[in-house]
């Protein structure tokens, strides 16, 4: 959708438990949040960049790097709150409070700083008339058909999809991990649906080295090592 108005969003709440303060922790000399902001600012197809947050410090960093801020209510920033509802809130805020309308919603989570512009452009290009949402994925290191297990009430393990009767690894469907590199959709789909997979979902494959999702200290160290290399 090359002739559409695209707004980029970064949703960054203040209450991270896995890595406190991660959204503004410095990686390679700049706050984690700034990677998504700067990438979006470099892209000709992105018209405006917004950060949705409940946290004053995050908001200050967002403004320092040139993003516009959407104040997120506390009830949409708790550990149990759905980010989908934060997406809906941001769209409503822009439409109802600021009189802004746009065609393409692009989410660039702060926790994936190693993405590149090409990854995001592929996602924007994949949003055609046959898709409602575009997500990014990476090849999975584990397969639910062979080496992923669940346990029953007695504590015994069984293969997650063991009843599929595949005998050889090369016969099973290829599986992917969902990554947080980018999400692309249309505002009306988000407002009128309750989850990503309520619609027709396309995928863009991103190499693992650009799809690191920082959730804890270990992930942060991985990102640091990859950035330095």
TrEMBL record:
Keywords: Nucleotidyltransferase, Transferase
Entries under InterPro entries matching the protein: CMP-NeuNAc_synthase, Cytidylyl_trans, Nucleotide-diphossugar_trans
Tagged with keyword Metal-binding: no
Domain of life: Bacteria
A GO molecular-function annotation: nucleotidyltransferase activity
Protein name: Acylneuraminate cytidylyltransferase family protein
